[in-house]
Q: What sequence folds into this?
């Protein structure tokens, strides 16, 4: 893994977990674990698209503002892809210990 790849891994992990790991500490196995983390989060998010949404009355301004905020939040949080917060939390619960351990 090049230093540039390690910097990207460091930035991606910081964005996902709010934990900073220096780029020089990243190993190939830690990068593989990071890839597994993002793959599991995106698989979960794809599966969430099959969950039915509640129906109700026509949306008002509050709903529109909330949806616009969520779109912007997801766009800047996870590389322009829709990721459900529950999926990210689940992924972090699995990988929050393994990724830093592989960096040592």
A:
């Amino acid at each position: 893994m090049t230093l540039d790849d390690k910097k990207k891994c460091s930035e991606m992990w910081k964005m996902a977990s709010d934990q900073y790991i220096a780029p020089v500490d990243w190993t190939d196995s830690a990068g593989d674990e990071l890839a597994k983390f993002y793959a599991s989060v995106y698989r979960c998010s794809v599966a969430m698209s099959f969950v039915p949404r509640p129906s109700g009355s026509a949306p008002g301004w509050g709903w529109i503002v909330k949806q616009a905020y969520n779109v912007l939040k997801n766009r800047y949080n996870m590389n322009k892809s829709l990721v459900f917060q529950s999926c990210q939390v689940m992924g972090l619960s699995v990988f929050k210990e393994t990724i830093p351990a592989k960096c040592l």
User: Anything to note?
Assistant: DSSP finds five helices and no strands in the chain. The chain has a mean pLDDT of 80.
